[in-house]
């Protein structure tokens, strides 16, 4: 087994920015990993712990079969939870993940903290749902004080455009998010990082939760509570390397430490329920932005825009979002959107998102232009499910006769 060595964290100043850095070595090379913030936030960068670096690099160590060693201290709670709960769970259920041993001194001292309460704000459905749910809560110590935006994308799309392409996109998105944060009365904290350099060639979904939460821990002296916006419901919990967010209920809890408590939020409701909830807030009518490919919603070129528009249409809320989507294009091509919904649903992908949209449309009496093949498939599924229920069988995906 190879060894990945994490150096002690230190801070460098660059003009009006400050970087929390650590030198990383492993048999195939060396690199300095950094997390960069505006200099106003320098006092909150955590040099006392290697937490941010270790968490961000855990998927790399598991994928590359590396042990981890450091002279820098690891938070005691984090050390216990990773070694005794998280790593055995992941490596025992995901074939491509190798067991990782960690050799680093642990320290359970609670650091001085501003005890801020934060969540990420991309202006998508999940993030808006979390933010709007935590602005005015019955438990005031859990009310949001900050929102964040991180440049941690390592999608292959960005790598094709060069080293700084995702950074340019993130900077533009920050300018988009900022007025939404201001309208919500929350401070926006932006963090840039080069941790994606370790993950060229690896799927974003395989590494994203660790790199995201590791980035939060770079500012653990600022954030006492942090909400992770879950994209999946509790019933969809699973171990899969294709999308590690499916087990974030476990991951998020295990990556909390003495200074920062992580909470997975939104998993108790469906994506369509979240969409319905946020539609009641005018701030989303101006700033909802779900597009993966573009700075602004493309309306018809990506799955996320199509799915969101179909959800809003099924809810009868689509006309509220004329400022952020091209609704004239949607209405001109409505049959194509509905056929796309059926196509995606019958592929049995997207965790049931299109199925709940279809059912809501049916409840509202909206006709869906099904092809004859789709009609026959739906009828066959309906009859088969009814037979299974009458026989007292548990209906599960993949258990059809």
* Count of separate DSSP helical elements: 14
Task: Indicate the low-confidence ranges by residue numbers.
Answer: 385-401
The amount of helix comes to: 40-55%
Q: Look at the helices and sheets and give the structural class.
A: alpha/beta
| Mean pLDDT over the residues | 88
Radius of gyration over C-alpha positions, nearest whole angstrom: 22 Å
The N- and C-terminal alpha carbons lie at a distance of: 46 Å
Number of strands: 13
Query: Biggest β-sheet: count, sense, barrel?
Result: 11 strands, mixed
Percent strand equals: 15-25%
Order of helices and strands: EEEEHEEHEEEHEHHEHEHEHHHHHHH
The best one-word shape is globular
